[in-house]
Amino acid sequence: MHLLPQTNQLRAMHTIVRNRDASREEFVFYTERIIRLLVEAGLDLLPFAPRDVTTPVGATYHGLRFAEDLVGVPIVRAGESMEAGLRAVVRGVRIGKILIQRDKVTKLPKLYYSALPEDIASRHVLLLDPMLATGGTALAAIQVLLDRGVVEENIVFVTFITVPEGIEAVCSRYPRVRIVTSAIEERLNENAYMLPGIGDFGDRFFGTD
Ligand code: PRP
Ligand code: URA
Ligand code: MG
Fold this sequence. Notes:
- The chain is an alpha/beta fold.
- It is 32% helix and 31% strand.
- The chain has 6 helices and 13 strands.
- The strands form 3 sheets. Strands 1, 4, 5, 6, 7, 8, 9, 10 and 11 form a 9-stranded mixed β-sheet that branches. It has a two-stranded antiparallel ribbon with strand order 2-3.
- The structure holds 1-O-pyrophosphono-5-O-phosphono-alpha-D-ribofuranose (PRP), uracil and magnesium ion.
């Protein structure tokens, strides 16, 4: 479990996006800023290899080379809000898609579709979904990746906010999957929404209801 440092700047951005009166423009602008921080934190968990370079003054800098065997997998729909943030920092990154929707009444996830790179089994995966609530959607998506041969420890689940119930669901079933988030909420309400939460992320980000 990797929680972003709870800086005043992060809390100020969370205050804007959690306000029910925030405009859609404010919501998109500030969630995208936080998503950028989350993506950077997720990338930091991937492996790096040593790399030396010569500086302009002829000295050697002993540095690192970023792992290139990466694929980003947004869980459609709300996860697509995180795709641009990943593309902005990893040039030419491969992108797979998994379409899962929670049933409006039962809140159980239904898998409709997936499209993933042929060689995904040998890649590290940043699985992207801003909401980890009951964990049903995350568990279903992780199962899709494992069925395609992805190694559990190669999955980093990047999520905007979560609750103890969601963390427990993922960590107890898949203890080697890492989770990166910007906030841990108090609990779920009777409709499986997080409290204090943010409401329906997908609807607020994409402007639907
Ligand atoms: C939301 C959210 C997550 C899921 C989390 O998706 O985007 O995917 O619920 O809930 P869970 O942890 O209880 O499964 P939803 O299917 O409501 O719609 P959307 O992605 O189209 O907005
Ligand atoms: N999906 C959301 O968009 N919000 C929640 O609080 C839970 C699931
Ligand atoms: Mg969703």
